[in-house]
Amino acid sequence: MADAFIDKLLAAERANDSLLCVGLDPEPAKFPGAWQHDPARIFDFCATIVDATRDLVLAFKPQIAYFAANRAEDQLERLMAHIRKAAPRVPVILDAKRGDIGSTAEQYAREAFERYGADAVTLSPLLGFDSIEPYMKYDGKGLILLCRTSNLGGADLQAQRLAGGDLLYEHIARLAHGEWNHTGQLGLVVGATAPAEIARVREIAPTLPLLIPGVGAQGGDAHAAVHAGWRAHGGRTTAPIIVNSSRAVLYASRGNEFAAAARRVAEETRAELNAARQARTAAAG
Q1: What does each C-alpha distance from 75 to 2, 161, 279 come to in angstroms?
Q2: pLDDT reported for residue 36
Q3: Cβ atoms within 10 Å, residue 245
Q4: Which of 45, 167, 200, 213 is most buried (most C-beta within 10 Å)?
């Protein structure tokens, strides 16, 4: 399917020579100059970041809570339309982490894919397969499941051992790679601060796209994340990764030159990720 999320993702990786995803988490208190503390400028701020970095990324990831908390859902709609026009080949992941069933899940799916026109959405799988199934009705859309998150409390559940021997996050990865993924739409979220667990998820799910947040302000190691998660064969990516950086790019400067500063940090991060990718390729022989 030409417009499937995975195809669009791999095409953007090649076209922009990038593993970098820029997260769009607008906080008006951190906006530059006269825009500071003005929620009405959320679209302007995010659109400026998109325009400054659109040739450097393989995805954008707006986090819906930052828009909803500021009553800015209409600005999110405008932003999604702007990205489709300004960067039509770059997929957009709506970071919503939805997790519900039945008709409620159907409405969340409509919100993500019809209202906002996202290429993919993040979901919580803890209610089981029937919480994911309504999203599968949207052919080609990516469904990225929380698997092993980087927050301190993530281990409270995700690292618990099940009766069959797997840790919970390993079981989620196994289901996503196997019986749940009959439409080929699934991916997984694994935090950059836990490279050993990225490697474990990659072992269980050798081809699924991995969304890896936490590089930059959260302290994740770009080299370790790429080495653990990215794979290729014959010069073609066989196991894509989406390495997200949000605050380090968005708030690289509070001055009027914030767009240029965001671009500079995005370029530096892309270069760091590409160097790690080259080292991973060399190590694989």
Answers
A1: 29, 43, 40
A2: 96
A3: 27
A4: 213
Residue 285 in any domain: the answer is no
Tell me which residue range forms the domain holding 81.
5-278
pTM: 0.96
Per-residue pLDDT of 215-227, as tens digits, reads: 765 556 888 999 9
Task: Grade residue 160 by pLDDT with cuts at 50, 70 and 90.
Answer: confident
- Is 210 a member of any domain? yes
Q: Per the structure, how many domains does the chain have?
A: 1
Output the pLDDT for position 154: 87
Within a domain: 284:
no
Q: Which of 30, 85, 97, 137 is catalytic?
A: 97
Q: Quick one: how far is CA 176 from the chain centroid?
A: 17
> Known catalytic residue: 137?
no
CATH code for position 148: 3.20.20.70
pLDDT given for residue 150 in this prediction: 82
The pLDDT score that the predictor gives to residue 6 is 96
Tens of pLDDT along 249-272?
999 999 989 999 999 999 999 999
pLDDT at 285 over 80: no
Query: DSSP per residue over the chain, as a string?
Result: -TT-HHHHHHHHHHHHT--EEEEE---GGG--GGGTT-GGGHHHHHHHHHHHHTTT-SEEEEBHHHHHTTT-HHHHHHHHHHHHHHSTTS-BEEEEEE---HHHHHHHHHIIIIIS--SEEEE--TT-GGGTGGGGGSTT-EEEEEEE--SGGGHHHHTPBPTTS-BHHHHHHHHHHTTT-TTS-EEEEE-TT-HHHHHHHHHHSSSS-EEE--BSTT-B-HHHHHHHH-EEETTEEEE-EEEEE-HHHHTS-SSTTHHHHHHHHHHHHHHHHHHHHHHHHHHH-
pLDDT at 2: 42
